[in-house]
Design brief:
Layout: E1 2-6, H1 12-24, E2 29-33, E3 38-40, E4 46-48, E5 51-52, E6 64-67, H2 73-78, H3 81-93, E7 96-100, H4 104-109, E8 117-118, E9 132-133, E10 138-141, E11 144-147, H5 153-164, H6 167-176
Parallel strand pairs: 1-2, 1-6, 2-5, 6-7, 7-11, 8-9
Antiparallel strand pairs: 3-4, 10-11
Helix pairs in contact: 1-5, 5-6
């Protein structure tokens, strides 16, 4: 099971692309509304989440959490107690955490990127406390996968698929959607 957290002001493409690709790969993805079940994206696209944040269950079925960026979505994610609990649980259990655009800053503020290679949206690098800033558009280091922003949302989603399944499955999916 994968939780994708959605907070008002989230970057739509950074959430929907990974959700779509993970579901195509056969993974159970549950969208989590941080501000209720209907969440408004940064570009005024309303999305109905599967569950509200207080309904999450942190147990052995959890394979990954995903934090889309966007503003003020990232700030709204960071101040949510359930998002923080999920990040802490994943950290303790070495479960994958995916974060894109501004959202890696949340992990940086918690000190989770120290010594890890990570990337983020331009201008947020100083918030990735202790990270080695990578040169790729998507970076995976240990249980943390980060990406630069909306333009690489599909590449980010494919990397999440790779980590949870295999490089072969990710490549097959990439070809199926005609992604170069």
């Amino acid at each position: 099971m994968i939780y994708v957290f959605l907070a008002d002001g989230f970057e739509e493409i950074e959430a929907i692309s990974p959700i779509d690709l993970l579901r195509r790969s056969g993974k159970e993805v549950i969208t989590v509304g941080v501000s209720g079940k209907t969440v408004m994206g940064a570009h005024n696209i309303p999305v109905t989440a599967d569950i509200a944040a207080e309904e999450i269950v942190l147990d052995t079925n959890l394979e990954m959490i995903v934090l889309p960026g966007g503003m003020p979505g990232t700030l709204n994610l960071e101040k949510n107690e359930y998002v923080q609990k999920a990040i802490d649980y994943c950290t303790e259990k070495n479960i994958y955490i995916g974060a894109i655009c501004a959202a890696p800053s949340i992990l940086g503020h918690k000190g989770l990127l120290r010594g890890k290679t990570a990337v983020c949206y331009e201008g947020f690098e100083n918030q990735l406390e202790g990270a080695v800033i990578g040169s790729s558009s998507v970076e995976a280091d240990g249980n943390i996968i980060t990406a630069r922003g909306a333009g690489v949302a599909v590449k980010f989603g494919l990397k999440l698929v790779e980590k949870l399944t295999s490089a072969e499955a990710s490549n097959k999916l990439s070809k199926a959607i005609l992604c170069d």
